[in-house]
Specification:
575 residues; 22 strands; 6-stranded parallel sheet; Rossmann fold; alpha/beta; 3 domains; globular
């Protein structure tokens, strides 16, 4: 994905520029596109703006003028519509020359760097006429723009335009070698003082959050409609497809319709998160009960939970006590729900006895009652997979629910999602696509450590880096491949780094095992303690851990596992 500066558009951005922005965002990883460069400070205060300055390291720099109008004409000596006061091609050329003059002022070494221009009219067809003296490589009109099936086709056309322009201009010569990353960074920094739109770090983060919320709403619509039309639904989707938040929205809409709804899951941390969300909305949604399924059933049945319950308590003792309690008709009459919503349903279906207890709280049971199950049934990582498959098949056969598949990832950037799938050894087509634009190779990184001290130094450095980028402590989580007492987070907490266990309330940086954090998300995820003890390691934890990240991921791996990690990454190249 190309690097866009800034990384978002806002409501003031013309629609045509938004279209071009989206195309550029999916461009090659080494491209950098600066949006809305105001050249007035360089041009004696005259109004001169370049809509996009695109640095293409192996070709040169392209200055783009965009016009969003649906109709653009040139008749006589007039442009139509009349708010186009100057020739867009003259604007683009003036911007290019002004930019180039100042660029060579930065360093005489840049005088051999080709700087060219073009216009893009994304919405308007514009056949070129001889009286304009404009070459075909100076324009991409609406007919061409709408013909591009992918961003890759669009970017290839831009490169073709650049090469044609360079070849036609005797003062320009093709690059002998690509522009070095250090020079790209220097040019970007050179442009910084004249960015027309320069958001602060925090504003940038919040704008990306707003865009992610918009993407999620698009993902929600068909599922909510499906639930309106069908009493029972099963929604299957990989990590990052928005299942938990869609389940929350469905629960709220059902409660507003007057139904008594239970929203439950198996995971402790997700259960606490949905319980807290339900508590926050309790005044508006009094008929919503939410939380971890086994804890919720225990509370409703009045069963005391030991201070430190064992696994056998949850798996055997509690179900037995609930089953006995359910023989009381008065209890079942008052404890039933009109609608049951289960998040991470694969974890409960893989535990038949707990699942059976839960269905007894649903009016009509799972055959005739109303329910919505959300789960990642294709990438089950907790519990008994054979039990899951058996009980899911029985449920589909007997309850005959409507089914929906969430195929597009709406949380992660493509570079993060693809890397997670590759390292986990899952099928390359786990996702049909990614709904969020943006994201570059810099969104994830892997470092190899030789000692606990070196790993601790990396975590401290990254923590400081992300705080400097504008991320708040509560937007960062440190997740370990090993048990918490043995994790680097436990050591750093003891040394005074402001971390807190993920189950504790507060706004601090959470630390947890990857397993325990399943179903939650943070803007930044640090994965730690990846060691070469293969008997203790499961590849699927990359998928579980990396897909928690909305913005950035960092991975810390012992150097003893470097060879196998490189092998796994290369496996994806052969597919």
């Amino acid at each position: 994905m190309a690097r866009l500066i800034p990384a978002f558009t806002d409501e003031r951005t013309p629609p045509g520029e938004k279209d071009v922005f989206r195309m550029l965002a999916s461009g090659p990883d080494d491209w950098v596109a600066i949006h809305s460069l105001d050249l007035a400070p360089w041009n004696r205060g005259h109004r001169t703006e370049i809509d996009f300055v695109v640095i293409v390291p192996d070709t040169g720099i392209l200055c783009i003028e965009v016009k969003s109008h649906r109709t653009i004409l040139f008749e006589g000596d007039q442009w139509i519509p009349h708010d186009i006061r100057r020739s867009p091609f003259k604007q683009a050329a003036d911007g290019r020359y002004s930019f180039y003059r100042n660029l060579i002022g930065l360093s005489s070494g840049y005088h051999r760097l080709p700087v060219v221009h073009c216009c893009i009219f994304p919405n308007a067809p514009f056949p070129l006429r001889p009286n304009l003296a404009v070459q075909p490589w100076e324009l991409i009109d609406g007919l061409q723009f709408r013909s591009f099936r992918t961003a890759q086709e669009f970017c290839a056309r831009l490169v073709s335009c650049m090469r044609s322009s360079i070849e036609a201009d005797a003062s320009l010569t093709p690059l002998a070698a690509p522009v070095r990353p250090a020079d790209v960074a220097r040019i970007v920094e050179f442009c910084a003082p004249v960015h027309k739109r320069r958001p602060g770090a925090r504003e940038d983060i919040m704008q990306r959050e707003k865009e992610a919320e918009h993407v999620l709403r698009e993902q929600q619509r068909p599922v909510l409609r499906l639930a309106e039309l069908n009493p029972r639904i099963v929604v299957d989707g990989a990590a990052g497809t928005g299942k938990t938040l869609i389940a929350m929205e469905l629960a709220a809409s059902l409660v507003r319709d007057g139904r008594r709804v239970a929203l439950v899951c198996f995971n402790q941390l997700v259960g606490e998160w949905v319980r807290q969300r339900a508590t926050d909305m309790s005044a508006a949604l009094p008929n919503l009960v939410a939380g971890r399924a086994i804890r919720l059933m225990a509370d409703m049945a009045g069963i005391a939970v030991p201070e430190q319950p064992s696994a056998s308590f949850w798996d055997e003792d509690l179900p037995a006590q609930i089953e006995e309690r359910l023989t009381d008709p008065d209890f079942t009459a008052t404890a039933s729900f009109d609608y049951l919503i289960v998040d991470e349903a694969q974890d409960l279906l893989a535990r038949p006895r707990i699942w059976h207890c839960l269905t007894q709280f649903l009016a009509g049971g799972f055959r005739d009652g109303n329910f919505a199950l959300f789960g990642d049934f294709s990438h089950q990582v907790l519990g008994d997979k054979s039990a899951l498959d058996e009980h899911l098949a029985a449920l589909l056969r007997d309850a005959r629910p409507a089914r929906w598949r969430l195929a597009e990832n709406c949380r992660n950037y493509q570079v993060i999602g693809n890397t997670a799938v590759r390292l986990s050894g899952f099928a390359a087509r786990t996702y049909s696509g990614y709904m969020r634009g943006g994201g570059t190779l810099s969104c994830y990184d892997i470092e190899f450590y030789r000692s606990p001290d070196e790993q601790a130094a990396y975590v401290r450095s990254w923590f400081a880096e992300f705080r400097a980028k504008g991320y708040r402590p509560g937007e960062i989580a440190i997740l370990s491949f090993c048990a918490e007492p043995d994790s680097i987070a436990a050591r750093l907490t003891a040394e005074g780094l402001p971390l807190q266990a993920a189950w504790k309330q507060g706004d601090g940086t959470a630390h947890s095992t990857i397993h325990a954090f399943k179903g939650l998300e943070r803007k930044v995820i640090l994965l730690t303690d990846l060691a070469p003890r293969q008997s203790e390691f499961h590849r699927h934890l990359f998928y579980t851990g990396m897909t928690r990240a909305v913005e950035e991921v960092r991975i810390l791996c012992h150097e003893g596992a470097k060879e196998v990690l490189v092998k796994w990454l290369k496996e994806g190249d052969d597919e």
